[in-house]
Amino acid sequence: MMKSKPDEEDYWNSSKFKAFTFDDEDDEFSRLKESKQAVNSIRRLVEEDDDEDDVEKVSWSGEPVGSISWSVRETAASNQRTDREPAFPKINADTPTVSRSHSGYSLSSLFKGKTKTGSFQFSDSLSDSSVRLYAPELRKPKSEYKDYVSDWSPEETVHRMQQGKAVSLEKFRSLQDKLLLLDFSISAHDGNVITAVLIYLKRTLSKEVLFRELESRQTALRHFIHYLTETRDQRLLLELLRALGRTEDIALLQYKEHLSIADENKRRDFLKSCLSLPFSPEDSAHVQDHYTLLERQIIIEATDRQAERGGKVEIFQKFPRRASILNMPLITTLYYCCFYHYTESEGTYSSPLNVRQTFRISEKQFFVTALAARAKLKAWVDVDALFTSRNWLGFTRKKSPLGFHRVVDILQKNSAPTQVLQEYVGLVDDAELRISLAQKHKCHDIIINTYRDLKDRQQLLGYRGKVERGSVEERKINELLDNPQIRWKN
Predict the structure, then answer these.
(1) C-alpha angle 321/322/327, rounded to 5°?
(2) Cα angle value 334/338/339 (rounded, 5°)
(3) What is the CA radius of gyration of the chain?
């Protein structure tokens, strides 16, 4: 259908498209004007309720677009994408609200042609060279962003761990990198770093590979054994020792399990089963003694508990037992037997002589233990018998495997009377030590006799002034001073 001429003129005049003419405004000003109109039309699409400051435009990372931290993160991300396979960012739906940034640029400012702090036209931003170079100027070499991308070598990682900085070991995936990490940590001589690396290797390597590599690195092996011991990972520790062929260590580790057994009969049976383990000769003797001692303690405890309840044994009535003898050390058991069963024959389990012979207790150790037990009971006759010995002519004399000055200390701690102390103070060999002990325990006769033997008249005169006037000690000193047969040295 053909339009009439007036209709055609209305069409061309009302259409938004104009016919080409040489008179149209095709200068630079008109093109810029159209560009501004296009931007303003986009601006209306972007704005919501004409409130440009209520909504913050953010990137995937949650930082305002155009800010410094956003540019740094984008730079690091682009560098990572060039080295690794591309991956989409992980979006956390629970990400909290992003705080407002103080940057003067945002996505809305690029569309609207103005900043938050002031306004400028879009055409002005096109001509501003500083704006156009803003993002490229922040892109620095990759080496300056290692703290962000965690791109450290094993040596650098160990160095950062020594400094207490946070690192991630997950990037070391190959066996070579993991072993380099372990070797550098050993070279750093830092136990905490070595342990941290070992924990990572324990989690990421098979047991066979880990045990094989630790065998050639004794420092790391010791740290790993200590770590497993502290964390009580008995199963893995046993597997490690078995792989290394350390049978004695395996036996000792199994032996230590007796500590967790509360019932004494079950513990005794467990110790009996340990006798067949491959211990060293010294450790084997120790385990045998432990089993024998516990077996004997069970018998003594049952007998004494029954006697104590019966109320017919005098010593249990005068000195009730304060604790059970079960699981006590050997010397404590010997002291107990010397206290409650001193006079029993050697054929009984509770006899002190039987305990001494069975467990090969030395003469000195037996003497000290028996002396302390009998002195505690104030059994001074038994104490005196410990020192009495006879020679082949039948003469008796006092002999001690322990220095008599230590004997005096033991007796004094058990509140021995002065007469008993005086007898043993006089047996101390050193004269000065004997005088010192005699002064401490007020043994006047010992001091007077020692000065007499030393023929020291001046010391004797001085000591006369320290005793009571008219006392037996003063009269004895006067008799010695008046004795013409004594040839004094001074």
Answers:
(1) 95
(2) 115
(3) 49
Count Cβ atoms within 10 A of the Cβ of residue 91 and give its class: 0-12 exposed, 13-18 middle, 19 or more buried. exposed
The token pair at 185 is: 């940590």
Q: Is the pTM of this model over 0.70?
A: no
Q: What is the DSSP secondary structure assignment for residue 196, as one 8-state letter?
A: H
Strand partners, 398: 388
Residue 119's DSSP bridge partners are 114
Give the other-Cβ count within 10 Å of 221's Cβ: 17
Three-state DSSP at 195 gives: helix
Q: What separation in angstroms does the CA of 20 have from each of 23, 211, 296?
A: 8, 86, 122
Average pLDDT over the chain, rounded to whole? 78
State which amino acid sits at residue 73. R
Q: Are residues 108 and 52 in contact, defined by beta-carbon separation less than 8 angstroms?
A: yes
Q: Predicted confidence band at 483 (pLDDT cuts at 50, 70, 90)? A: confident
Confidence at residue 75, expressed as pLDDT on a 0 to 100 scale: 52
Query: Would you place residue 419 in the very low, low, confident or very high pLDDT band (cuts 50, 70, 90)?
Result: confident
Rounded Cα–Cα distance for residues 270 and 255 (Å): 9
Say yes or no to pLDDT of 74 above 70: no
Residue whose entry in the numeric block shows the structure tokens 């004594």: 486
Backbone angles phi, psi at 202, to 5 degrees: -60, -35
User: Which residue would you say has higher pLDDT here, 147 or 338?
Assistant: 338
Q: Is a pLDDT exceeding 70 seen at residue 146?
A: no
